[in-house]
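Entry for the shared binder. Reason: the reviewer on the internal report wants the predicted structure included alongside the sequence.
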Amino acid sequence: MAINVQTSDQTARITMTGRFDFQVHRDFKDAYAQLIDNTAVREIEVEMSKVDYLDSSALGMLMLLNERSKAANKAVSLLNTSGVVSQVLEVANFSKIFNIKNSV
């Protein structure tokens, strides 16, 4: 999996490609930790259009991101989920926890 972080104004975007599973937990944590510590960032977006798989550990990582972001008064959005990823998030009721934005 490739993880890329971009910051623009008060919004940071974590873009991921490939499988989102336990193998990337350290890289994912490193990516969002710097954003939580950055006082200029008010919103963190997780771009998921190129994620083709996620497992329960990925759901846990997203939950940790959400908890730590809330503690730092930052919003989190999941962007462009589709296919299996969208189905897993729906079954886990993540739409009740996260703002999920899908472009049409």
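Summary line for the report: The chain has a mean pLDDT of 94.
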